[in-house]
Amino acid sequence: MTSEDVLQKIHRHSLAMLQALDEVCAKYGIVFYVAYGALIGTVRHRGFIPWDNDIDVMISRENFQKLVRHRDEFPEDYPLVLPTEHGEKRYLDSVPRMMYRHMLIKMDPDACRYYNDHNDRLGLDFFFLDKTYDDWRGKLQRTELALIYGLLNAYRHKSFFADYSAKMKCVNVILRAVGRCLPYNWLLARAEKVATRFDERADAEYCFDSNDDLTCLFRLMPVKAFGKPVRAAFEDITAPIPSDADTVLRAYYGDYRKLPPEEERLPHWGRNLLAAEDFIFTEPVAAE
């Protein structure tokens, strides 16, 4: 199997997860939007960015809670896994995801055991849209949220800090030491409370991705740019995108229609991790 074969397999199963999600959401009136690279791909390529290897979606917490109630309707090979299901008091991140059971990425074996093999699967990630302000109130909210995520690193496997800069490693040592003194469930509850602080405010005109990395916490998008989803071509299906996708994409990427230099055309996760030997496929072989 070549790297191109692996990428095609990733695209095929990512598309199948998106389609399965879309079917459940359509059945129960649940609203979501394709996001990030998948949204660029929809607008610019009418499908996957050719070198990308995942799909992300954005969803409100209210709609996600509706989805969780129907998670048993997802295909067995593509379960929905919540952040609290990676192991007792074991923090991977705050991102729920659908996972493809039969594709494993070769990673630190100890970390994989730590997370019940939830960290090494092909996934479709869910990012929450919460409201905020473009003033001191919003900055305080998002700074507090970033601090809580830093404290939650006390419950994260050590292998995830290998790529930190020297400065971030020093900060992380302090936050992890403090985080160990705080109950895991309290930190999770506090993170949700801070993220949703302004969700009921009608005058909060901006939203942000509240369960992503620190950079994304401080990128704001107008609430009105989302609205009723618009169906757009994505490969051989259609996918829901924000009503003003251009505004959303420019808030994140600037001139997203311009292709990056060839040396920067790298997959979203794993960076150069696309070699066939980096993956294990356990798909059942069809009988001839």
Structural overview:
The chain has 288 residues and is an alpha+beta fold. It has one domain (3-281). The protein has helices spanning 3-28, 36-45, 61-68, 109-114, 136-152, 166-179, 184-195, 214-217, 245-253, and strands spanning 33-35, 55-60, 80-81, 97-105, 121-132, 206-209, 221-222, 230-234, 237-241, 279-281. Strands 1, 2, 3, 4, 5, 6, 7 and 10 form an eight-stranded mixed β-sheet that branches. A hairpin with a 2-residue loop joins strand 8 and strand 9. Helix 5 (136-152) packs across helix 6 (166-179). The longest helix is centred in the N-terminal third of the chain and has 26 residues, at 3-28. The protein is globular and about 50 Å long. The chain starts with a helix and ends in a 7-residue tail after the last strand. The relative contact order is 0.17.
